[in-house]
Amino acid sequence: MRRASRLGLFGLLLTLTLPAGAAIYSYIDAEGNRVFTDHPAGHAAEPVETKPANSMAAQPVPPPKQAIKVLKPTTPGYTLLDIVQPVADATIRNNAGELTVSVTSNPALHPGHQYRVLLDGAPAGAPGESPVVMLQNVDRGSHQLMVDVIDSQGESLQSSAPRVFHMMRTSLVQRRMVNPCKKGDYGVRPECALKDKPKEKKDIPFVPFL
After folding, report:
1. Residue 178's pLDDT is what?
2. 9, 32, 47, 126 — which has fewest CB within 10 A?
3. Beta pairing partners, 25
4. Buried b / exposed e across 31-67, counting CB within 10 Å, b at 16+?
């Protein structure tokens, strides 16, 4: 029984491996074994009926999806961004510490962009589209100026080269020496602080000695 099962399995495998349309024959060899072959070679072989094997058409394989690259919009730049005024290493004489800063760019500001002036690394004045910015009460001494172009979120897009200038202001002591403080000047002129106002002498009425 087991031998017949093996022979049947062998015959099934043979039918699967042979090309479609090839005839299969079976015969008993000299040792009593059943043999399956497509070449009987003169043996008293009997044809074996085979059933067509089930087959399915190959399913089409979809082409691999290509990753879609999302390109970020490029931010328009500037070929020139510079400070026109003050000139490099300029000396500004202004007792109030006022400074006019002029900037230029090429091309002109794009929509949504603004100029922002930096004094010693810190923003000075309000950003705006005007190329002229007025700074107030700049301390005496040497300072460094820069200008940024910023977007609508306040992010810096481009910066100019730094520009050094020197602010000259007379001190309060020098002002008092040139124009001494009078009684009505205390609390009015910056160099005449109320705390420096001299105390007034009270008039003591004269009482004759009797």
Report:
1. 74
2. 32
3. 37, 47
4. eeeebbbeebeeeebeeeebeeeeeeeeeeeeeeeee
